[in-house]
Write a structure and sequence with these properties.
Blueprint (H helix, E strand, L loop, with lengths): L5 E7 L4 E9 L3 H9 L1 H7 L2 E3 L8 E5 L7 E10 L2 E8 L5 E9 L6 E8 L6 H18 L10 H17 L2 E7 L3 H9 L1 H7 L8 E5 L4 E6 L4 E11 L3 E10 L2 E2 L3 E9 L6 E8 L5 H23 L1
Pfam families: AHSA1
Protein name: SRPBCC domain-containing protein
Family: Belongs to the AHA1 family.
Length: 308
């Protein structure tokens, strides 16, 4: 079975959630950008844009449907060939921030369309999650990249909203005070040498690989036949690191999981308060508890190394 063309990740906090969607299409980045920019084509898959936002601060209204109330307003924050950022407010909700990026696919073929929506209304995760997946499906159809067996838009939106709801239900949240400065903790989290010094250090065959260009890491533990793949989603040195989390073992491979790590100065000089939030579409409490225990043990190893 081929992988689903859309990956989804829930970052942020319960009060300020951030939705990240990555959609893979076979069209080249230039074709995707043309479908985003051309008014006639954009109207077929997204909606009609009132206003001509070209510079930071320019206002717009995007009519998403036939009803007058089905419209979003915003201001352009950033526009370059690979990155669009705007404020966003739909039907009078509090203003949020939307980022859209288009880049070559991870294997060099096609494109990857990234949507990151930082919400101001925490109860809107399911609605926006399902809505953006439907929009990305409509864009794929406009590009001629829709799978022949794809479900209709309503079914896609409903199924996606249910999965996003599940992702909000059982986050793993852990807080730990570490005996080192934020910069030193950051190095332990983001360098090959740093990760190798503490991650699963109770096994002597663990291998750590780092791809700095992609912002990716692979940690392999042959003894337990497990591989963990991480790829950056948000990097704000030395305060925040968010990444995808793909755990692979004999029983299968995790999907739609992410981690969001926050670092801040501790109450004592030279200490760091680390907050970990791990989310995924876990239907059972046991999966959440297994991850909680794993994080407690692994962070204990990090504290030992930093304190040594």
């Amino acid at each position: 079975m081929s992988p689903h063309p859309t990956s989804r990740f829930l970052l942020g906090t319960a009060e300020s959630p951030e939705l990240v969607l990555l959609r893979r299409v076979s069209a080249a980045p230039e074709a995707v950008r043309e479908a985003l920019a051309d008014p006639e084509r954009r109207g077929r898959w997204l909606g009609a844009l009132d206003g001509d936002p070209a510079a930071a601060g320019d206002a717009f209204e995007l009519r998403l449907g036939d009803e007058a109330s089905d419209a979003a307003v915003g201001r352009l924050l950033l526009l370059d060939p690979e990155h669009l950022a705007t404020t966003w407010s739909w039907q009078g909700e509090r203003e949020s921030v939307l980022h859209v990026r288009v880049r070559p696919g991870p294997d060099g073929a096609g494109s990857e369309i990234g949507v990151r929506h930082s919400l101001a209304e925490p109860d809107h995760v399911e609605g926006y999650g399902g809505g953006w997946e439907q929009v990305l499906q409509a864009l794929a159809r406009e590009l001629g990249c829709e799978a022949a067996d794809a479900e209709d838009d309503a079914a896609i939106e409903t199924a996606a909203a249910e999965r996003w709801h599940l992702m909000t239900q059982r986050p793993v949240e852990i807080e730990r005070v570490l005996p080192a400065s934020p910069e030193r903790v950051w190095e332990a989290l983001t360098t090959r040498e740093g990760l190798a010094s503490w991650w699963w250090r109770h096994w002597d065959d663990v291998e750590v690989e780092l791809d700095r260009e992609r912002g990716a890491a692979r940690i392999t533990a042959p003894r337990i036949a497990t591989t963990l793949d991480l790829e950056r989603l948000v990097v704000e040195r030395p305060a925040r690191l968010a990444a995808t989390w793909v755990w692979s073992e004999a029983s299968g491979t995790a999907a739609d999981e992410a981690i969001d790590l926050r670092l801040e100065e501790g109450t004592s000089p030279g200490n760091t308060r680390l907050r970990v939030r791990h989310t995924g579409p876990w239907a059972e409490d046991s999966l959440q508890e297994n991850y909680r225990q794993g994080w407690e043990s692994t962070l204990g190893q990090l504290a030992e190394v930093l304190g040594g």
